Amino acid sequence: MSLSEQVPEVSAASAGSLATFESTDPATGAVVAVFPVHDADAVRETVTRAHPAAASWAALGFAERRLRLAAYRGHLARRVHELADLVHRENGKPHADAVLEITLAIDHLAWAAGHAEKTLGPRRVRAGALAANHAAYLEYQPLGVVGVIGPWNYPVFTPMGSIAYALAAGNAVVFKPSEFTPAIGDWLVAAWRAAVPDVADVLQLVTGSGETGAALCRAGVDKLAFTGSAATGRKVMAVCAETLTPVLMECGGKDAMIVDDDADVSAAAGAAVWGAMSNAGQTCIGIERVYATSAVHDRFVAEVTRRTAALRPGSDDGASYGPMTMASQTDVVRRHLDDATAAGGRAVTGGTVDGGFIAPTVLLGVPESSAAVREETFGPTLTITEVPDAEEGLRRANDSSMGLGGSVFSGSADRAMDLARRMRSGMTSINSVLTFVSVPALPFGGVGESGFGRIHGEDGLREFTRAKAITRQRVGLPVDLMSFSRPAGAADALARVMRLVHGRHR
Ligand code: NDP
Hints:
By secondary structure, the chain is of the alpha/beta class. The chain is built from 16 helices and 22 strands.
């Protein structure tokens, strides 16, 4: 029997005296699995068990951890289709999209494990003139136990962005998946136990709703990595503030694409449609707004409309994207569509909602003050707005409380780089969309209401560590400035040296 088929039995067995909840297939409503609602005591017990596991994991060192992380990724890589089946059933996305998501997660796992020692390991740094008789050392030490709270939209890739980097940095992890995708979280943790049984408690699971997440924040974790909406992020920060527990905030986005005069319009349209509609638009770095210059606007709209007409939501193998994973998100999309049309916007395609399936929708003429432009829609919708030039497109793209990703299409590499640098976001792809997530060396995270802190890359490894600084005196000096026995004139001599070295700068 495969791991994904075992999920309901495994979960029911671990429920004990706790209440339970069901996770369901968003396309059919069929029950996927039953899970315990871990209460505050159960969460605290799990975190307490994780602390000694974290100490042993840290003591193993980089090389031994790397071996076990390799075994984990090998285990995942041999079961991609099995996990993708489960993702399709519990999250609703097409099997092929689930395969892509899992592939990205495995690649990040490999990168994090392969770069941890070089990024975090002990190194000597220059001691500088004032401490020339000392050797100076820097290393990045694990924090201990990291709590990871994840969303449902990319239930493998998104939490793995924290889990893989936290583990590679030498921490244990307690993972609380979204109540909409607990079976996928359970599968990932069961896979860890199966792949590396000697360090099984290094990655553990707690399941439940928001209250279980809040309990995790209070359970004595050394850092809390949160991915979800800004509204929930605020609650998580407030709870973590009670114990000064540090937080990583990966929140929502309202990402924009700028299409410049000399852009490849066909390529831009293809990228915009994928960026907006794939995963039913439930992508934190999905493209929700396009600002196209007057020179290309009409052609761009025609291309987008033509490509969108070929898309079909559904749950079968041929569907372009699946249902909304969470019923309440359908209501948000409906509200944004109603608001946009009431404000004078017009849907050139789509605009209809059939149960959990939302037609691919392209909106024109939507005022910038509308919810469809200002708030995260998180559905298969796209607003396209004509602007006189790319500079105005950038101004409007940046006029947002959020700033996660974004995209620039331009025929000029220099111009595109300039626009990308000035885009108020953590990541920007030029002449493509979302590409930055597939480059493990690049950090991922937002500005403003999109959050703070970084996963992925060297910054993502350091995010789950504390810098440790050490000095070691190599030779004693005749005059020790940090001593009560220093000569009376030492401070004056020091001031003269400072004047000589730095005083000429004006
Ligand atoms: P939510 O904010 O609703 O939930 C996120 C997680 O927090 C879930 O596991 C949820 O549990 C949990 N949670 C809810 N209430 C609390 C609480 N009071 N204390 C602690 N934890 C709590 O987000 P969604 O799951 O709906 O995910 C969609 C959002 O995530 C979008 O805004 C999207 O943009 C963002 N996102 C950001 C990414 C990034 O990297 N920046 C990547 C992917 C998504 P439960 O589900 O059980 O209620």
